Amino acid sequence: MLLSPVQFFKNLPKKKCAACKKEMEEQADCYTNKCEKCSTVI
């Protein structure tokens, strides 16, 4: 059975930082995989 797109995205796991593994607050226009604390970008 196929899921609706809405159900698919609701079932995705929370995004986690690649460095410290803490859950990240996702932003619609953000593709980073590290949290602000671990990111080296200023």
From TrEMBL:
Pfam family of the protein (one): YhfH
Protein name as annotated: YhfH-like protein
Species the sequence originates in: Piscibacillus halophilus
Domain of life of the native organism: Bacteria
